[in-house]
Design brief:
By secondary structure, the protein is mostly helical. It has six helices and three strands; from the N terminus they run H-H-E-H-H-E-E-H-H. 69% of the residues lie in helices and 12% in strands. 16% of the residues are buried.
Amino acid sequence: MSQDAKSLLVLINDAARMVRSEFGRSARDHKLTLLQWRTLGMLARGEPLTQSAIAQRIEVSPMTMSDIVNRLESLGYVLREVDPADSRAKLVRLAPAALPIVEEMRAIAQDLSSRIFAGFSEPEREALEVLLGRLIANLESLAATHD
């Protein structure tokens, strides 16, 4: 791997870390941890998910995810129900009480996006989106070969 490729990977990692850190600051202002926020964000994308599926997607242990879901359930932000496909598993879905915080999260994400892409032209943003999408597809393909 060339030195430039190593530098690019470091830059991508640093950018992702810094974005997570900025979201973390916003989450703390709402009395939530970043992992709780990420869980709500994952559930806001659509259908209910099992705790293990959420844990895998946000890269935490099943035990950590159990703690996160317990806390979000105690706040009234998520509901658990039996998975019709597996009676031993629970599906987690957003509760109506979470909708205002999800909307606020989206507004914060939009504001953060505007700030971190300041000085980028629209074609530059679009090109970056396409390139990162391709990078993610390559990484997903690599991950599939390890399963």
